[in-house]
Protein 1
Amino acid sequence: MTDLRERPRTPMTRAPRPRRGPRELRLGRLRADLRTVVLTVVLVAIALGLALVGLCFGASWSTPGEVFAVLFGPEHSVVIVEWRLARVTAALVFGAALGVAGAIFQNLTRNPMGSPDVIGLDTGSYTGALFAITVLAGTSGQRALASVVGGLAVAAAIYLLSSKGGFSGLRLVVIGIGVNAMMTAVNSWIVLRAELEVAIAAVGWSAGSLNGVGWHHLWLPFTVLAVLLALLVARAHAMHQTSFGDAIAVTTGVSLKRLRLLMVLIGVGCTATVTAVAGPIAFIALAAPQIGRRLAGAPGVPLLPAALTGAVLLLGADLIAQALLAPVALPVGVVSTAIGGCYLIRLLTREVRRA
Amino acid sequence: MTAHPDARADARAGTPEAHPDTPPTVRLTARDLTLRYGDRVVSTRLNLDIPDGAFTAVVGPNGCGKSTLLRAFVRLLRPDSGHVGFDGRDVGDYPAKALARQLGFLPQDPLAPEDIRVRQLVRRGRFPHQSLLGLWAPGDEEAVEEAMVAAGVEDLADRLVRELSGGQRQRVWVAMVLAQRTPYLLLDEPTSFLDITHQYQLLALLSELRDRGRTVIAVLHDINQACRFADHMVAVREGRVVAEGVPADIVDAALIKDVFDLPSLIVPDPVTGTPMVVPTLQGDRVEHPPPLPG
């Protein structure tokens, strides 16, 4: 194409010179918004700070010096490495996974309320896990698999119910809220029918809890999440292209149906994997992507800020849950629900005002 | 499509005014196309050739299937039967990004993500040229800047899209499609939300792009604008092509009556000499009959 700059142009209404836009960092072929980079550094720093607090905190406090000596030095401590480090790592990784799952579904539905915990994917995964515990032997492998199957079944049901007359994000969210309520009832029913010991174990876990999580619980979910996140990184660019609506996504070269299916699989996979280990931890997936989006000032619902915000939120919530009524450790889901509930109310009132 | 330097020369030679005797080059075709929108059959066994390098306007009454036809061209709608071909190959057989490097499309009401800025939006037009991870290729920046200049939005580059006026926003979308650098541009009623000044500016921009070798296909509401700017007009009614050709050759009172069910008088546009449709409603008395041709 010839240079278009040389031609005389019909005079257009001139806008006032804008203030400088967002700055960028360039590294070879990689572009990054400066604000996102700064935000990433800040969130990582906060996460590390919270992690240090988490490693020190316990029935008896350790000093940071002791913690560093165990982590990087010659000292050994079962409490710090086997208990606290496992728990802190789980909170960070699961928080990130939930944040990412939320971002995926909010992108797919183009709705800030379209997150897996609101549309019933957590609850469906939990139904699967409950089934594994009450009917099957309840090994961690069975639980993980049953969670994924439960989550996918709910996702498929919502999709089928809402896809009549074309894909609509809002309809999907509304139907998902209904499905969520039904699955909650099913879960209560399963627990009521279960034997007493099983029921007590299941209920303690029903709010979503990291109590008693150890490394032996974590290697499988971490591997699964690593694979899912690697897949996601490869498709993230295409996912963001869908935020322009189906028409532009398709005509700029996105294979929409395949992409949507893959995104749902990754999102459900992340949610179900976390649920299988820690139960349905609510509201991290709802709040983290939107908080991350606002902090980053980025278009759409970006994934990296969602992941980091999710990690910080879940770890922070878990620390509060442990400290609030110490030495009794609350399930982290109680705290995340309290924080997230306030956020959901705010979101709803704003949506209502806008409508 | 920068790889075919000769295509443009062929294209210009193929436009109706340039060589009326040579048949125009055709790359985009519809063959026996039957389209269905939900339960409603929109067109049956429709055949159409889009002349390469020309400005084609698709006109017709509301709901006649002109937008549906455009959507079938860019694979947004799978035909019930028949096919849309580009360079002799069914558009459905192209890999998604390969087709997106040939045919650019601007829908009637595209969605912008919240908090997106103009430059960020225009950059997304580069998607079909980018690798899996969306890393920037050397030509991307140049294509984006050139597209913004061509659409006259370079001064808005750092503004938030939601803060722009309707006319500015439409030019931003045009810039995005231009950044895609496709030889073909398909636009679905691009002027519909614009005031009259911006309508003409946009149409002038599209003609200019045509002059620079792009093929433009636009669904237009205003028949007079179509007559003035298009090299090739396709008149559609109830999913059938009623007439196609150079506007001056095909537009007469009978056609307007047939397509729009509107009695009218056709006079030469005093500025361009192209046909101008002046509706005559019941009770109108023709004060100034048009000069007889010749």
Note: Chain A touches chain B through 47 residues (CB under 8 Å).
Protein 2
Amino acid sequence: MVSFLFRRFGAMLLLLLVVSFITFTLFHFGPADPASAACGQECTPDRVEQARVALGLDKPFFVQYFAFLSGLVGPRMLGAPGAEQMCAWPCLGKSFQTNENVTDMIANALPYTLSLAIGAVLMWTIVGVGFGLLAAMRKGKLTDRFIVGASSIGVSLPIPVTGLVLLLVFVGTLGWFPFTTNQIVSPFGEAGFGAWVTNYFLAWVALAVLFSAQYVRITRNNMIETFSEDFMRTARAKGLSRRKIVFKHGVRAGITPIITMLGLDLGALLGGAVLTEQIFSVPGLGFTAVKAATSGDLPVTMAITMLAAFFIIFFNVLVDIAYAFIDPRVKVN
Amino acid sequence: MNSRATKLLSVAAVAALALTGCAGGSKAPQGGQDGAQADPYAPVIVQSGFAEKGGNVNVLMSADFATLDPGNSNYVQTANVGQLYYRTLTMAKETAGQPPKIVPDLATDTGKVSKDGKTWTYTLKDGLKFEDGTPITSKDIKYGVERTYARDVYTQAPQELNSALTDDGYKGPYSDDDLEAIETPDDKTIVFHLKQPFAEFPALVSRSNTAPVPEKKDTKLDYTNHPVSSGPYKVKSYDRGRELVLERNENWDPATDPNRSALPDTFTFSLSSSQATISQKLISDADPNAITLDSNGAMQASDTASLNDAKVKARTASGFLGCIDVIDLNTETIKDPDVRKAIALAMDREAIQVQYGGARFGQLVTSQLTPQMVGVTEQKTDLSADGKPKLEEAKALLEGKDVPKNLVYGYANSTERYKNVGTVLQQNLKELGIELELRPIPAANYYSTLAGKEMPDIARSGWCGGADSSSARMTVDPNLGPSLDGKTYGFSNIPRFYDKDLSKKMYELRGANGTPEELGAKWSEIYNEVMATYPLVPTMHSYTNSVVGSNIRNAQVGYFFGAIDLSTVGVAK
Amino acid sequence: MTATASKPSEQAKAKPVATGRSLLATAWMRIRKSPVAMVSLAIVVGMVLFAILAPVLVGIEGQDPNTTNTSPEVLDNFYTPGLPLPYYMYPSAEHWLGVEPGLGRDLFARLAYGAQVSLIIALLSTLVSVVLGTVLGAAAGYFGGKIDMVISRIMDLFLAFPHLLLVLSIAPILQSRLSGTALARGSFVPIASLVIVLGFFGWAYLARVVRGQVLSIREQEYIDAAKSFGTKNWSMIIKQVIPNVTGVVLVYATMMIPTNITAEAALSFLGVGVKDPTPSWGQMLNAAQAGNWYLQDPWFLAVPSIALILTVLAFNLLGDALRDALDPKSSR
């Protein structure tokens, strides 16, 4: 078990290193000259050069890359010669645009993304798995058909459309919900739990519509498959009650693929729900990333891309481990 | 005075302005019913004459301030909020609809000049203190100016004051000793030495360079997180990208400061709501204590209808700001003045106005010189006053000419309406047989791209006179004038206009003496001659509408800030 | 949203049984019997025809996707509070679907030409992914050993990247690299860069599935037989292996198309995909959202949304039907 974990985490670090190198290369040779972007509107050629030096962009590519990596290991110095500043570990550099510490920016943005992700995941798991189970138990009946039909439509609704329609109807026309505010970050803040829910509710729904539909399908298919397996037949033959069969045996066996998917989706979502955050102006990681990407803010884009990759890979590993625990049929070799 | 230096604050103002995408209504308030044909562009101050102290103002913004450090700012939003926490020797005091007036602030007057015009002396008022209670001395002001020379640290440091001073090679306090161009014989006196006489010097010391910075508290680039206050408010908390709270600075003595009414107890800045959210909140009065600093009052294209609603109208502060938008024609790629003129005449400037939101958001103009400027003479032009294209005339001009088949229009990618302007131009130029390609340019790099070798054939730009909005020179010279040595076009001359004779005339006029009226007349005459070759096409004089919450009082739109002036605003309980 | 744009959705769980032509024929028989599948097919064919015939249809309407109508008289009515939106906002004989607010361009013309752009991007990028995924997946599965290891690691890498974030950053890079050339005129650059980016990031999942299929096929006897006749590896892959995974690939391709349609819409919506004046459904969504127009004028939002949802739904249902038809086990 220990060596299994070591191998998985070792591979994870290696993969992250490759990801960081590729991202760094891609953005390094990108179109926007970060020096002239950082230099602002009033920018003569000599000021661009000064900015270039101040940002350390005058150095060779590999020097820059290793300087970046060094910040992941310990503190590093940043800034123009004569006015260097210490950037504490973990140092992801400073924003070219605002000179803010990228680690701080991420720490600021992450709670928003978390708020969005937690609510959305809960919502779609409950709705998706619930209706999926229901459909599986009523297989072939009207309920099943209705749920399957609705889920077909659900997976076909693009987030921009769902999001804008929700805003139009519930904020613009009916006024049942306020426009999202960035003042509410956590359910335990001053504003209280209710305000937190109201603030993120529509954004959760926008995500949940799409994902619930997927979860309905996967739950239904898995349950139907599990129901037809031998041990279920045995259980039925033993005369166990239907409810007991479904919840004690069926769900337990059928839940593995759902956990897998949940882990992967959560990992992807924690890297920033780009569209949802943009539409509902939730200043999370995705929102920050879009802003950085369009203004050539290399350190910020880099950091968020890497963090997102980290989440994806990390949750992959978690899922592998969880797999071993949940499903008795899987054994760690 | 060099052309580059004049530009700093001005272009920043444009940049801030460039944020909002606005297309919308062209229906000006209809004065028909009450008979009086009121000037639709007269400034409107919401609930003026209010003097009660107390309360909190919520300032909604779509983005964090680029910086709060007065030594690293050429941003108009920082200048506006800066009125609350830093003071300068003189101050550009806003009056709605009018260019700002230079008044004494930390100094007792707007300056005493020596006979040769090269030395300016200022005396500080008594009773000036920083937020920690230590007295403000002339050395703190000198140190503030010195910091702005460290351009390797502060890439946005304002330079217009520095380039007027004698000490050109100075590198800032971190790597150099002492700035010789400024003397501080005692704690109350500060003396500036200039390269050449400069009549508008009092305006230069109103720039944020002269905000006092205590050397011991200089945290360099982190100074933006807590600039030491010399004004009526100080930073209580600052969560970058989310929230800034300003509270009263008890060490500020109102007796020393007639310019700031400092009515509210606190200002809370919410720093990343989307513009759509901001405009909706303001229009629906969801937060009665709210205002915005976003350009155009964060108005969205579709909000125009709401502006005509009587209830919203009563809460809308409005007024001109000193910004004129133009379409620049690259004179290096479109060399023939007749071709440029044809392009200019073919433009449907009225349709362009619609993309800006219609007449409500700006007045169609045929010149960059406004009646608000001193000494301006009559402007002659063949552009139609109503903005309609003159296609026949344009086509006639092109007969037998070598007309370019393909041209490129560049626009800042953040702004819907500038793209839409391109779409309009595309249609107009098609009539002349010219295909126009629309090329998005990252907004952050927009102006440096226009100044660089990738300048497209056609581009939109805006010019704001900033604190110098009343001077014709401050518009003509930077936009169309020659470089420092007079041998080529100047840095912010986007159309790259250079004409041997005209550019020489402008070069000579820079050092000329005379009353503001005489000089204004001379500059506007040259402008007329230059404009006969159509290096650029003036389109709109921007007019800002900013809706405020129902408790907000004394809300005026600054001519320089293009947003609610924070130094006078108040809030009812 | 990362999910739709990048991660092949859970339909990937399908376990089609791969075989040759006879099965396709049976599949077609089955599809013909399903009314849902037939309606979906009709919608898909209809949309493709709509896109192909765009010039003809717009010609009949007598409009053009790029002609602006910005006369204040036309647009003023938007801005008068309390009044309903002017009639030309809504379908009329002159403008079948009304006009855009702001620039006053004809919505029907933009929808039709937008269908061309959206579908071309989705189909071509799917083609790129399918070719890459099939070839690399087949190679990995067939050759095994080191080749398999290298390809599998690359697949892992591609699956680990936050796709939308990367695509978001890369699309503008590609666009600016391609522009400035003669290609820059017209809409070639944004379309090509979206095809490249979406195609290049969408192959990994399919490759993994194909690899799995090939692994099992490899063990089958007829491959051994062919090998013993000395057939070369690549011609073996092309002649023997790939035809045997056609079923899987077909199902995945059908399901990848709606994913790519959505991805195009998402990117253009974020302002990094297709840009005005080139119309696409995503660009139209972007225009509806810009400046809050959709709050004032929901119709502007409805037009591209309905087209988008209808098409994506049809492709998804068709994909489901195809999978069911090719997989006798999943009889729902």
Note: Chain A touches chain B through 45 residues (CB under 8 Å).
